Amino acid sequence: MGVDNGRAIPSLIKNSQNGKFDAVIHIGDIGYNLYAYNGRIGDAFMNAIQPFAAIVPYMVIPGNHEYTCYDDKCPGDNGMSYETRFKMPQNTNNMYYTFTLGPALFVAINTEVYFETEMSDLEVSQRQKKWLRQVLREANLPENRARHPWIIVYGHRPLYCTALAECREGMTFFKREGNGTVGSLYDIDDILYDYGVDLAFWGHQHYYERMFPVYNQTAYRNSMYENAFVNPRATVHIVSGTGGMESKTEEFNPTPSLWSAFRSSAYGYTRFSVLNKTHLYLEQIDVDRASFRYKWEINAILCKYFWGRGINSHEMEFIPDLTDFFAIRQLEVSDNE
Ligand SMILES: [Fe+2]
Q1: pLDDT digits 0-9 by tens, 161-199
Q2: Where in this chain does the record put each Purple acid phosphatase C-terminal domain (predicted)?
Q3: How far is the centre of ligand 1, averaged over its atoms, from the C-alpha of 203 (Å)?
Q4: Which of 60, 91, 114, 264 has the greatest count of CB atoms below 10 A from its CB?
């Protein structure tokens, strides 16, 4: 999401000010580009987001635009603007960190260590991988997982995607190979699976895509579509990259892989609510519907989660009255029309 064509910004402002969000997470490619024109683009972007970023936590992780310079906006600053404009937890120069919110543990990782040779080497990428394993191992100690049963990882470049330009089979194996010298995203797939990560959010591709539970290119989907998200047997990956940049959203590969469950190129953002220890509600917001009025939208799903592989076998906790929940959602739809 950038300052130029930042389509999601008005909706984020309005709904933050209306108390609809507990936090906003921006998964890299921030401002397009923070360093550009001696930082003046960065200043403009920070001013644009201030009406909501001053109200709720605004959590960030770097994308390729935080390191690589593009077009006439060069030279870049190799992440300096990103590192100095934000202050994320745990003093890692905003590279990777965790935080908890309600019953969820959020784990942020920097996928650029596998691609940007100026800021990374084998030691840097392996250090993050070691940290990630350690964090998730501790998160799965019974007392910790009981307190934070939801583990949600986010980073910039997706492990799975079906955009036409960069995600077709045979094209760097769905982006996971990295630059070939500092490891690859393959290992991240293993870690998410091994430690029972529930959800993984990614950006970079300019569209929205919800996957079926997937690991090692295998979609864990049942014959009944709805059942795939009940007791899923692998991590559910979400690509959420339509906050708005100067170029248009992307075209899809016309023959998506089996793990692709839903795709949309509408500008917007993903909102989700952790309802309790086993239920999570996720929806994609289309900010351009109804002549620039904001409408909660199109891809609402209710996930009933628990991991059936022994790593997180907490009891299913049923919501007493879902009717009330959906009634509230309907009111919100009305409010935004
Ligand atoms: Fe990107």
Answers
A1: 888 877 766 554 455 666 667 777 878 999 999 999 999
A2: 234-288
A3: 7
A4: 114
